[in-house]
């Protein structure tokens, strides 16, 4: 079985994101970029499945500018076998990503597409769900445990009431949650080995996909500054402030 893992290049989770002065987006010049953290978890899980002999090949796919190949190289250094880069200069919207991933699935026929539950830059939480709809494959989202059983895949999801266990047939789409595993750091020898692994470069046109944006960003702004808090001496003071200043009781 092949596993396809889409990996997105995003602003590193530890960077303090700044809005551009003209309000058209966020600053990405000279900003540290990394693999979306949920995608690291997906790569880790896929590598573990390959190491356990459950999967034979692990393909990392990234859609974005040339530098997205660095993100693919990180996946290759963690253990992915080969990469596919779909080059696009504009940031693709989730529907475009889903259509492109469907086109890759039509070519590669993976048994499983393992995505992050969410990209930390656009917070869309849409791509996995849309890929599964476009492919007509079963999906399980926000998965915190995966077990291969004879006739499919058993997954555990954290839901409000506790843990939900579902079984899916293959091929299917799974989006992964934080508690699935602890991703490994790539070792130096594996980083060196990853430099020699194959990355195929494609364009949306070669895949027959119209990836043009459908949304217009009207503006991006910083959240309002939080007011400093005050310490009150007594409960009576607190009630007075809530009633007469904040007017919430
Ligand atoms: P989103 O729906 O944007 O929150 O993203 C959910 C998941 O879809 C991510 O964790 C990735 O696995 C995948 N994904 C989204 N955008 C891209 C992209 N440009 N390249 C590769 N994978 C992506």
Structure commentary:
By secondary structure, the protein is of the alpha/beta class. It has 6 helices and 11 strands. It has one domain (2-217): HUPs (Rossmann fold, 3-Layer(aba) Sandwich). It has a 9-stranded mixed sheet, with helices on both faces. The chain has a two-stranded antiparallel sheet with strand order 2-3. Helix 2 (68-78) crosses helix 5 (188-194) and helix 3 packs across helix 4 (127-135). It is globular, with a radius of gyration of 21 Å. Bound molecules: adenosine monophosphate. Residues 6-8, 36, 38-39, 61-64, 92, 94, 97, 115-116, 118-119, 122, 124-128 line the site of adenosine monophosphate.
Can you lay out the helices and strands and say which pair or pack?
Blueprint: E1 2-6, E2 9-11, E3 33-35, H1 37-51, E4 57-64, H2 68-78, E5 82-87, H3 94-108, E6 112-116, H4 127-135, E7 138-149, E8 152-159, E9 162-168, E10 172-176, H5 188-194, E11 199-202, H6 235-244
Parallel strand pairs: 1-4, 1-6, 4-5, 5-11, 6-10, 7-10
Antiparallel strand pairs: 2-3, 7-8, 8-9
Helix pairs in contact: 2-5, 3-4
The structure holds adenosine monophosphate.
Strand order of the largest sheet: 9-8-7-10-6-1-4-5-11
Q: Which molecules other than protein and nucleic acid are bound?
A: adenosine monophosphate
The CATH topology corresponds to Rossmann fold
SS-based structural class? alpha/beta
Q: If you compute it from the alpha carbons, what radius of gyration comes out, rounded to the nearest whole angstrom? A: 21 Å
What is the helix/strand order? EEEHEHEHEHEEEEHEH
Instruction: Figure out the total of helices.
Output: 6
User: Which CATH class?
Assistant: Alpha Beta
Helical content band: 25-40%
Give a quick account of the main beta sheet: strands, pairing sense, barrel closure: 9 strands, mixed
- Indicate the proportion of strand residues: 25-35%
Distance between the termini: 60 Å
